[in-house]
Amino acid sequence: MKHIIGRIIIYIFLILTFLILGIIGYINKPLDVPDPKILNINYYKYNTNTGNYEEIKLTENELYYNGELFDLNNCKNYTYNDETGIIKLDCRKAFRIVGFTEEALVININKENQYFYKEKEKSFNGEFQRKFKMAIDTYKKEGENLLTEKEISIEEFKNLLNSNDTSYIYIKGNNCKNECTLFNKEFLSFSSKDNIYYLNITKLTENDIEELKEINKIFNTDLLNGNYPQIIIIENKEIEILRIEGKGFDYSMYHNYANNMEEENE
User: Which residues have CB under 8 Å from 127's CB, separation 6+?
Assistant: First the structure.
């Protein structure tokens, strides 16, 4: 009888020992971490709605996020499953690492793949191509070709300056890049009337520019070298400048803008 009790005690002791060792082993087992190639790197995503850049960075066990798209600002610690690529955050949210290249990190969140890039410019270009289904250079050429239909000479422009009619003349400053590329096509719907024009300042001579400066001080360096689209509004020989500002890729707020402005002034 004593031998049986002794064996039972030994069995219980062994079971408890293995159980404790198992628990200790589970607690201290190595945690999965994402590939070291993507850790401690700032990745960026251009927010096409705001024009700002989202930012994300992963360390071995923490997430750093700054943005508006994914509501992850209050998340920090995470666990990672190497088999599924899923990151579970302490804020009860999760996303999956789909893959990465030398340039970008791709995650799947809210059932959509999202692309974050090491360089902001590449993020802008990537989002542009996904939005418009073409490269920026192609979109730019299309818009500039359409603008030629509204292009006027310097002499025609000076005639408009002396006219009592209301006119809207689009100019692109020498430093206006992506913003003007996005606005070029939208300008064609700026007014439903035949009173919108395009002045290509790259075709102006130095004498043309000096003459414009003498006509009105508004024709200054800021106007000619601006980095955003601008509309010269001429009404009853009075001149004012409208600075065009979109929201990310969206410039639709300027559709029929001139008509709406004229109605308000009536």
Answer: 45, 46, 48, 115, 249
What is the rounded distance in angstroms from the CA atom of residue 96 to the CA atom of residue 86? Answer: 4
Spacing of C-alpha 264 from chain mean position = 32
Q: Which residue type sits at 195?
A: N
Task: Report the C-alpha gap between 8 and 14 in whole angstroms.
Answer: 10
Q: Give CA separation, 108 vs 59, 60, 71, 128, 180, in Å.
A: 18, 19, 14, 19, 32
pLDDT digits (tens, 9 = 90+) for 112-140: 999 999 999 999 999 999 999 999 999 99
At residue 176, the 3 state secondary structure works out as coil
Q: How far apart are CA 67 and CA 202, in angstroms?
A: 38
From the list 259, 196, 205, the residue with the least C-alpha distance to 231 is 196
Q: CA–CA distance from 188 to each of 147, 170, 175, 183 (Å)?
A: 8, 10, 21, 9
Question: What's the pLDDT tens digit per position in 220-266?
Answer: 877 888 899 999 999 988 899 999 999 999 999 999 998 887 776 66
Contacts with 255 (C-beta within 8 Å, 6 or more apart), sequence order: 186, 189, 190
The helix/strand/coil state of 168 is strand
φ, ψ for residue 12 (rounded to 5)? -65, -40
